[in-house]
Structures are given as structure tokens and as C-alpha cells.
Amino acid sequence: MDLSYTEEEQRFRAELRAHLEASVPRTEPPEDFDAEFLWMLEFQRRMHGGNWVGIHWPKQYGGRDATPMQQAIFAEEMARARAPQIVNRVAINNVGPTLMHFGTEEQKKRYLPGMLSGDEIWCQLYSEPGAGSDLASLRTRAELDGDDYVVTGQKVWTSYAQHARWAILLARTDPDARQHRGISYLIVDMQAPGIELRPLRQMTGASEFNEVFMDAVRVPRANLIGAANEGWRIAQVTLAHERGTNYAIKEQVLARINVDELLAQAQQTGRASERNVRQRLAQLYLETEIMRFMNLEMLTRVARGETPGAETSIVKTFWADLSQAIGDAGVEILGEQGLLLRGSPHAVGAGRFAQHLLFSRAATIAGGTSEIQRNIIAQRMLGLPRS
Ligand SMILES: Cc1cc2nc3c(=O)[nH]c(=O)nc-3n(C[C@H](O)[C@H](O)[C@H](O)COP(=O)(O)OP(=O)(O)OC[C@H]3O[C@@H](n4cnc5c(N)ncnc54)[C@H](O)[C@@H]3O)c2cc1C
To answer: I need a surface site. Which of 118, 164, 270, 374 has the fewest CB within 10 A?
Structure first.
């Protein structure tokens, strides 16, 4: 891949940089999770105003058809501007591309625009108390009654459910079929009667995710994506997007912001001259660069029309470990004060590293655990027998 920039790419960068300068909030994120959500949503709206949300989407659906190089530039500029994440990421990275592939024209027209603008937030109702890694054992039922499916069951770990207008749901529509068959993929109105949410408090103090209880929730048949009982295949496409390039780019941006910040803090406090600290920082820098190149390779494959498969598991495992290494290094280099969360007057960098340390524990679980990713690599890439 040619890593030099064309004039057009340089113009793209300049335009994006100017938009980011005008859009990135000047304030630190609010302490309260709900207020932080709105702070991030406001950023997404400003970015959408310049057509800078979902740049990898086709132009016909409101994206920019961004080339791999433009997506790489996007990641660099987001990190440079220390930009917040795009909050409706479940919609933009997972649901949108799945709908483009499997949805009807009506479904695309109805749902895609509100994803980019942030007017309609989405969540993902996959995991259940007894079905996480072994997702195919899910027990939520959807039974056809006239023109509606009637959904009953429980989901868990549903990020942003409390803010979501819509959800994608996996439910069992044929209880007699073998595990992976008999599952359908539905769009659920999160305001429908019969849905109850219970927020789950995480160790960061935030309640990003929730338990979702569904008791005879009516879902119109028109909200079925693809064919009935074909949901497993569609869910795999959504999961590939979740583990794939755009999440990895988001994590690369986060890693770069955190490593740069840590470098600045180490220099300010004089710790950068300690041999161990220098070794640690250089290693993190090196791994962040490796991740950048892994992402470029994935982007190149996508541009060639290839669908990344098991390789996404390598990237996912790599960024999960890197994310935790940055959190660990952050608090070690910053000392006791690095453990203080935002809200404390003595917190360093507005508590960024303490927050990151706590949240990064989720990196090896969310979107499929590292053990499961290694199983995928072992079976599909190395040809080893199933565990
Ligand atoms: C921050 C966060 C956000 C999330 N958001 C969502 C969301 O929005 N929507 C949603 O549906 N889900 C969400 N999840 C859930 C996530 O997908 C699951 O937690 C994940 O798939 C693991 O499932 P589990 O928690 O049931 O663990 P389990 O599957 O019970 O696994 C427990 C342990 O056993 C190991 N294990 C299991 N099977 C194997 C095996 N075959 N070989 C080796 N080891 C194995 C696992 O690696 C893990 O260490 C989120 C999770 C987190 C942490």
C-alpha cells in the first residue's frame, strides 16, 4: 500500500481538521453518565452537520464512500483533535451496514438517516444471562400472532438501551429447529409496551449497560430483517462489523490519544527520564503503530472487495490487550493520583487514566471474549480441532 498522500487526500484532511476544530467540545466530559451521553451526542450532531459521520457508508445512504486512506486519515485527525467517540456507534458500525446488506428498501429509507444524525440511537439485544459466548443457545422467543411477532425473554449487557429508540434483536422463532437455525433478526421499538429496563452499574460508576426484560412485546412482521429463521447468518455479519475495521479504528484513535496524553504527563512530572517508564512508553507507542498498520491492512482488504473473516479476531485480541496495557501503564506512571476518577480535585488529566483502567477490563469481553477470538484463530486460521 502506498502511504504517501495525494493532493485530494490532503484537501480531505484539511477540511476535516477545520471541521473538528470547530466541533470538538472545549470542556471535559461531564461526570454524570447521562450528561456525558448528551455531550457526545452533541458532538455527533456537529460532525453530522459537515457530513463527517459514517464516512465509510456509501454516498447513497448519506456517507462519503471514504477510501481506506481517507478512513485512516479520519482516525489520525480524530486522535489529533482528541475528539470524543461517535455515540451512535452500534447503529453506524453494526446495524447500518447489516441493513444495507439484508434490509428492504423501505427499511433502509426508514432507519438509516436517523442513525447518522443521532436522532435515533440503537442498541443490540443479543446476549442473555445463559447465552453470551454461546449465543446460539439464546432462549428469547418470538411467536407469530397475526401480523406481529410476540416477544418474551430477557437480554443483558445491553449498552445504551436507556437512550435507544430502536434495537436489533435475536430471538428464537422455531423452537424445534437445531440451535443455529430457528433464530430470527428483528427490529424492536424500545418504547413498545412490555419492555422494562434495569440499568447495571459498572465499576466505573456509570450504567452504560442494562438488563432488558420483554414481556409479550409486539413487533410488526415488517420489522423482520431477511427471512424468518435466517437470523443467525445475518447476526454473524453484524458481529463481523462489530469486531471489524470501524471498531478497531475507534480503538486506535483512543489508544493514540491515551498514549500521547501519557507521554505528556510523564514529561511534565519528570518521570519520562526513568528507564522503566521510557521502555513502557516506547512499547505502547510501538503497539499503537502496529495497530495502525493492522487497520490499514484491513481497510485495504475491504477496498479490494474482500470480506475480512477470522483476521478480525487477531485485531480484536490485539487492541483488547493494548487497551488494558495502556490503562495499567497509565496508573503506574501517574502514581496514586492516577487512580482518582474525574470529580476529584486531585485527579490527573480529569481522571482519564483511572476511568480507562477500569473500563478497559471490558475490552477482552465485549464483542466476543479473547478466549473465543483465540478459538476462532485456532480453528479457522490454524486448522486446529474444535475445543
Ligand atoms: C462493556 C460491554 C458492553 C456490552 N454490550 C453488549 C450489547 O450492547 N449487547 C449485547 O448483546 N451484549 C453486550 N455485551 C455482552 C458481551 O457480548 C458478552 O459479555 C460476551 O459475549 C461474553 O459473554 P458472557 O458475558 O455471557 O460470558 P460467558 O460466555 O459466560 O464466558 C465466561 C468466560 O468463559 C470463557 N469461555 C466461554 N466459552 C468458552 C470456550 N468455548 N472456550 C474458551 N473459553 C470460553 C469466556 O471467554 C469468559 O472468560 C457487552 C459486554 C461488555 C463487557
So the answer is: 270
Nearest to 41 by CA among 138, 115, 146: 115
Q: Whose CA is nearest to atom 2 of ligand 1?
A: 366
DSSP bridge pairs for 171:
184
314-342 per-position pLDDT tens digit: 999 999 999 999 999 998 899 888 899 88
Q: Which of 159, 211, 222 is nearest to 189 (CA)?
A: 222
Q: Which of 87, 110, 131 is the last residue of a domain?
A: 87
Q: Is the CB of 209 under 6 A from ligand 1?
A: yes
- Number of domains, the chain: 3
Rounded CA-CA distance 64/85 in Å is 19
User: Is 28 tagged catalytic?
Assistant: no
- Residue 387 beta carbon below 6 angstroms from any ligand 1 atom: yes
Residue 242 has φ and ψ, to the nearest 5°, of -65, -40
Q: Is residue 281's pLDDT more than 90? A: yes
Q: Which of 241, 317, 369 to mutate to test the pocket of ligand 1 (most atoms within 8 A of CB)?
A: 369
> Degrees (nearest 5) of the Cα angle 259, 367, 83?
35
d(CA 270, CA 283): 19
Q: Which residue has the higher pLDDT, 36 or 306?
A: 36
Range of the domain at 61: 7-87
- The verdict on the CB of residue 324 being under 6 Å from ligand 1 is no
Is 335 in the same domain as 296? Answer: yes
pTM: 0.93
Task: Pick the atom of ligand 1 nearest to 202's CA.
Answer: 1
